[in-house]
Write a structure and sequence with these properties.
- The chain is α/β, with parallel strands linked by helices and 725 residues long.
- A hairpin with an 8-residue loop joins strand 4 and strand 5.
- The longest helix is centred in the C-terminal third of the chain and has 31 residues.
- It is elongated and about 110 Å long.
- The protein has a six-stranded mixed β-sheet, sandwiched between helices.
- The two termini are 39 Å apart.
C-alpha cells in the first residue's frame, strides 16, 4: 500500500504541474458534455475550475450544421469551458422523420471468457465483468490493445470463437435468452464491401438477402438506413471508385458497413471499433451520427481504443478494461471522478481517453525504461514516471470498494428481477430469393470489374489468336496429326493456366461471403449455387469466342455437331478449372499462396496429361496413379481428339488406308469407342460437381473455425441463482 500511495502521490504531483495555471494555455474549446440525468456532483480536477450543477440541453437540429449546447451555468468559469459546438453531418433535403426503434436492455453478470493459450500468464481474457446497457444510449468498452474489449463485445453478442468458453450470465430484457436473427446487428472491425456497387445498390442487395417481403418495402428500409447514417450525398457513388475516380473515404465506408446492419432495424447494435483507422474529423462525424441513431431508441454497444475530448463527451457509459479486469463501469463523468479518487486526476489540457490509457497501458513501462536515465531541459521525465501495474491495481481496488460498483450490482439486480418482452425474429429471405439475388449481383459485378473479367476475356482471345496463327495451315494429311495434337494440348493447357488471373476476383467473393455468412445473410450452398449460375454466362462467352477462333484457324473438321462438342468440352474444362481455383482460394485465402499453388498444380497436371509421354507409359506411382486420373487436361484433350479423329481415315500411299484412331495412337492415348468422348465429357461434369462439393466442405469447416458460436457454461451460476431465488 505504501508503494501504491507513493506512486499515486508522484503522479498527482506531475498532473498538478502539468495543469498549473502558469503552464497551461487557456482553451475555450475544451469541454465535457454533461448529459441530462448524469451525476449531480462536482468532478475533481487538480487546479481546475470547480464544477457546479448545470443543465445542458443537447438539441440536434434536423437539416442544421451543428449540435447546439444551451447551458445555464452557475459559474462563469464553467461557461467558458462549455462554449463551443460540434459539427454534425448535414441531412439531405426532404429528410424523413426518424423512425423510433424499440431498443432492449443488455445486462452481463460475472462474465468470464477463457481462451486457451491466449495469454502467456492466464487463459482468462475477460474476468468477472459486470455491466449493462439501456435503450437509447451508447455504452463504450474502452481499454488498451489486448485488454479483452472485442472478446467482451463478442461474448455479449453470442459470437465468440469456437475455442473460447464463456462463464456467466447475459440477460436481454431481463431474460437469459438467445438473441434471434434480425434482433441485433454486429459490425466487424474490418468489413468487406463491394467496390463496384454504389452505396444504394450495396444496401439494397443486402436488404434483399436479409429481409422477407416485397421489393418496394425493402427500398424504403434502404432509404431509412441511408438517412440514418447520413449517406445521402454518397448514395449513388461507387464504393470503390471507377477508373481514375476515387472511392468513398474511410469514414463513409465505415458508415456503409454500419448501414448494412441497420436495414434489419435491430434492437441492439454491436460495433467493433467504429473509429478504426479514422481521422479526428471523421471520428467525430461518426460518433455524432451514432448519437443520433441512439436517440431513435436503439441500444448501442461498441469498443473503442482512444478518442478525442469531443468524442468522449458523447458517450453515456464506459466500461474500462485492462488485461481483462474491469477497472470501472459507469457514466463517463463518474469515470473521471473515479480516477481522481484513486489519485490519478485528469490534467485539464489532456484528453480523458489519453489519460485513461496512459494510466493503464502496460506498454508505457517500456517508455519508462527507455527514459530512465534521460533528462530534458526541465529535469526528469516526471510525466511518464509511473508504474502502470501499480496504477491498475490501485484503480481496480478503488473501484471494487466504491459506490459505483455497488450501484452497478444494484442496477443489475433490478434489471434481472423481472423479465421483459422477448425479442422475436423478423424472418429471413428464402434460399431461392438469396440465390437469385446473389446471381444477379455477381453478374452486375462481373460487368463492372473489367480488370478481373473483361481483361481476362481479352487475354484469352489474344492467346487463342497466337496459338491459332502458330498452328495454322496444317492441312488434313497424316503428317499433320502430331502437330494438331500439340495445338490442342497447348490451347487447353495455356488457357486454363491463364484463368488463374481470376484468383483476386474469387478471393474477393470468398471474403464477401465470409462477411455475409458471419451475420447469417448467406450460406455455403446459397453462395456456391449463386456463384456457379453467375459464372456460367461469362465462362460460356469465353469458351464460345475462343473456340470459334481456334477451331477455324487450326482447320478442324467443318461440321456443326463437332464444333458444338468442342465448345461444350472447353466450357466444361473452364468450369472445372474455376472449381479448382475456388478450392485453393478457400483453402489459402491469400492471393500469393493461391496463385503459387495453382501454378504448381497446373504444371503437374500438364506433365501427367499424356502429351509429353503416352499415358500408358507413365510411371505407375504418382504420375499415372493418381495424377493422370486427377488432371482434367487428360479428359478434355482426349475428348477433343476423339471428337476430331474417330470415324476418319488417312491414305498411306495409293492402296492402303488407316483409321484416325490408328493414326493418333502413337501421339496420344485415346479410346476407339465412339461414345468415349461423351464419357470424357461426363467425367468433366462430375469434376465440376466434385470440386463444388469440396468447396462447400471447406467453406463449412475452414471458415467455420472463424465462425462465432455462443458457448455459455453457467452451471455453477445457475445453481447459485436458483438457490438465491
Amino acid at each position: 500500500m505504501e508503494e501504491i500511495q507513493s506512486q499515486s502521490d508522484n503522479y498527482r504531483s506531475s498532473s498538478s504541474s502539468a495543469s498549473s495555471p502558469a503552464s497551461r494555455v487557456p482553451s475555450s474549446n475544451f469541454f465535457y458534455l454533461r448529459k441530462p440525468g448524469s451525476l449531480r456532483q462536482p468532478i475533481s480536477f487538480e487546479d481546475s475550475p470547480e464544477w457546479e450543477d448545470t443543465d445542458i440541453d443537447v438539441r440536434v437540429e434536423e437539416g442544421g450544421d451543428s449540435i447546439n449546447i444551451a447551458t445555464t451555468p452557475a459559474s462563469p468559469s464553467l461557461s467558458k469551458l462549455n462554449s463551443g459546438s460540434l459539427p454534425s453531418p448535414p441531412l439531405p433535403e426532404g429528410a424523413v422523420v426518424v423512425r423510433k426503434i424499440a431498443g432492449a436492455s443488455v445486462v452481463w453478470k460475472d462474465l468470464t471468457v477463457t481462451i486457451k493459450g491466449k495469454r502467456k500468464y492466464s487463459d482468462k481474457v475477460v474476468k468477472s465483468s459486470n455491466g449493462y446497457a439501456f435503450p437509447g444510449t451508447m455504452t463504450v468498452i474502452m481499454g488498451p490493445a489486448k485488454s479483452g474489449k472485442s472478446t467482451l463485445l463478442r461474448s455479449l453478442a453470442g459470437r465468440l470463437h469456437h475455442s473460447a468458453k464463456m462463464y456467466g450470465e447475459v440477460f436481454v430484457n431481463g431474460a437469459k435468452s438467445h438473441m434471434p436473427y434480425g434482433s441485433y446487428g454486429f459490425v466487424e472491425r474490418e468489413t468487406t464491401l463491394i467496390g463496384s456497387l454504389t452505396v444504394r445498390e450495396f444496401l439494397y442487395y443486402s436488404a434483399l438477402l436479409q429481409l422477407p417481403g416485397f421489393f418496394c418495402q425493402k427500398r424504403n428500409v434502404v432509404e431509412d438506413a441511408i438517412h440514418a447514417m447520413s449517406l445521402g450525398d454518397y448514395a449513388n457513388k461507387l464504393i470503390g471508385g471507377h477508373c481514375y475516380m476515387k472511392g468513398l473515404p474511410r469514414g463513409e465506408r465505415r458508415r456503409v458497413s454500419i448501414a448494412r446492419e441497420l436495414v434489419m432495424r435491430p434492437h441492439i447494435l454491436f460495433i467493433d471499433e467504429p473509429l478504426y483507422h479514422l481521422d479526428s474529423v471523421s471520428a467525430l462525424l461518426m460518433m455524432v451520427t451514432l448519437k443520433k441513431l441512439a436517440s431513435t431508441g436503439c441500444t448501442l454497444i461498441f469498443t473503442i481504443y482512444q478518442s478525442s475530448t469531443e468524442v468522449f463527451g458523447l458517450f453515456d457509459r464506459i466500461c474500462l478494461l485492462s488485461n481483462g479486469n474491469t477497472l470501472f463501469f459507469g457514466e463517463t463523468l463518474a469515470c473521471l471522478q473515479h480516477f481522481s479518487n484513486a489519485g490519478f486526476p485528469c490534467p485539464i489540457m489532456q484528453s480523458p481517453s489519453d489519460h485513461f490509457l496512459r494510466a493503464i497501458n502496460t506498454d508505457f513501462d517500456r517508455i519508462i525504461a527507455m527514459c530512465k536515465n534521460w533528462q530534458d531541459e526541465h529535469g526528469d521525465f516526471s510525466s511518464v514516471n509511473m508504474d502502470t501495474a501499480v496504477a491498475i491495481r490501485t484503480l481496480e481496488a478503488t473501484y471494487k470498494s466504491s459506490a459505483d460498483a455497488a450501484a452497478v450490482e444494484s442496477m443489475i439486480l433490478r434489471l434481472t428481477e423481472k423479465e421483459g418482452p422477448l425479442l422475436k425474429s423478423k424472418g429471413k429471405a428464402s434460399n431461392a430469393t438469396r440465390i437469385a439475388v446473389l446471381t444477379w449481383r455477381s453478374l452486375l459485378i462481373m460487368s463492372r470489374e473489367w480488370k478481373f473479367y473483361w481483361l481476362r476475356l481479352i487475354l484469352c482471345m489474344l492467346l487463342t489468336l497466337c496459338v491459332g496463327t502458330v498452328f495454322s495451315g496444317l492441312g488434313h494429311s497424316l503428317s499433320s496429326v502430331v502437330t494438331r495434337v500439340a495445338a490442342i494440348f497447348v490451347f487447353i493447357s495455356f488457357t486454363s493456366l491463364l484463368s488463374i488471373a481470376g484468383v483476386p476476383a474469387l478471393l474477393k467473393e470468398i471474403k464477401i461471403y465470409a462477411s455475409e455468412e458471419s451475420n447469417q445473410h448467406s450460406g455455403a450452398f446459397v453462395f456456391l449455387l449463386g456463384q456457379l449460375l453467375s459464372s456460367i454466362p461469362f465462362l460460356f462467352l469465353i469458351s464460345i469466342s475462343s473456340s470459334l477462333v481456334f477451331y477455324f484457324l487450326i482447320g478442324l473438321q467443318d461440321e456443326f455437331s463437332l464444333l458444338m462438342y468442342f465448345v461444350l468440352n472447353f466450357f466444361m474444362c473452364l468450369l472445372v478449372n474455376e472449381g479448382l481455383m475456388l478450392v485453393v482460394v478457400s483453402l489459402w485465402q491469400h492471393v500469393f499462396w493461391s496463385i503459387l499453388t495453382l501454378v504448381s498444380i497446373h504444371v503437374l497436371m500438364m506433365l501427367a496429361a499424356g502429351y509429353f509421354r503416352i499415358r500408358n507409359a507413365l510411371p505407375g506411382p504418382m504420375w499415372m496413379y493418381p495424377l493422370s486420373y486427377v488432371a482434367f487436361h487428360t479428359y478434355s484433350i482426349q475428348g477433343l481428339l476423339e471428337n476430331e479423329y474417330l470415324g476418319t481415315s488417312f491414305a498411306v500411299g495409293q492402296v492402303r488406308t488407316i483409321t484416325g484412331f490408328q493414326a493418333i495412337r502413337s501421339a496420344y492415348d485415346i479410346s476407339s469407342d465412339n461414345n468415349s468422348k461423351w464419357e470424357n465429357l461426363l467425367i468433366l461434369f462430375l469434376m465440376v460437381v466434385g470440386y463444388r462439393i469440396l468447396v462447400f466442405v471447406l467453406l463449412h469447416f475452414r471458415l467455420g473455425k472463424n465462425k462465432s458460436v455462443n458457448k455459455i457454461f453457467q452451471c455453477n451460476q445457475d445453481k447459485k441463482s436458483t438457490s438465491t431465488r
